[in-house]
Amino acid sequence: MIITIFAKPNAKENIIEEISTTQYKISVTAPPVKGLANQKIIELLAEHFNIAKSQIILKSGFSSRIKKFEIYS
């Protein structure tokens, strides 16, 4: 499954908001430096979908606020 993430780094708290089944708005406290925000997004998605972090791959948008992740179940 491919999902689209609208990322907000440097937020006050970590929050996942589901826009639709394939679109999410995710706020993370991590800064957008050296992939830290992307790592935190992967952690939150793994918790949300109750899967391992290794089952989530960032496909596009490494340095963008709009990202595409592929989730393997």
What would you note in describing this structure?
The protein is of the alpha+beta class. It has a single domain, classed as Conserved Hypothetical Protein Mth637, Chain: A. Helix content is 19%, strand content 40%. The protein contains one helix and five strands; from the N terminus they run βββαββ. Strands 2-3-1-5-4 form a five-stranded mixed beta sheet, with helices on one face. The protein is globular and about 30 Å long.
Number of helical stretches of at least 4 residues: 1
Number of strands: 5
Helical content, roughly? 10-25%
Largest sheet report: 5 strands, mixed
Bin the strand percentage: 35-45%
Question: Structural class from helices and strands?
Answer: alpha+beta
Please identify the oligomeric state.
Answer: single chain
Task: Determine the N-to-C terminus distance.
Answer: 8 Å
Radius of gyration: 11 Å
Question: And the CATH topology?
Answer: Conserved Hypothetical Protein Mth637, Chain: A
CATH class: Alpha Beta
**Number of domains in the coordinates?**
1
Query: What is the architecture at the second tier of CATH?
Result: 2-Layer Sandwich
Low-confidence stretches: none
Rough shape? globular
**How are strands sequenced across the largest beta sheet?**
2-3-1-5-4
**Mean pLDDT rating:** 96
SSE string: EEEHEE
